[in-house]
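Changelog note: in this version the structure field was regenerated for every chain. One regenerated record is shown below for reference.
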Amino acid sequence: MHPSQSELLKLKNLGLASVNILHSIGIRTCDDLRRVGPVEAFTSIRGRGINASRVLLYALQGALLDVHWNDLDPDLKRRLANEADQMLARQDQN
């Protein structure tokens, strides 16, 4: 296992499948995920044709906050979803 893979696997909410998906969009470390942010990471994943649900979006945010995705504040989830929807709509226009 690559060291960066194990680093990401230590984050809450992320398993091997999620880490492999993150690697496919160039996110290899916790710092990469922090720099890109959960919304951009999620929309990049979706932009590659990977069918990811909003749970992944919430899991990415929870990983950065060290919180289980289901324990995120509902308002935060709503804001994340709205931001992701807007970014995906812009991607669809291009």
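Spot check on this record: Residues 74 and 80 are 10 Å apart (CA to CA). The domain at 3-93 is CATH 1.10.150.20 (DNA polymerase; domain 1).
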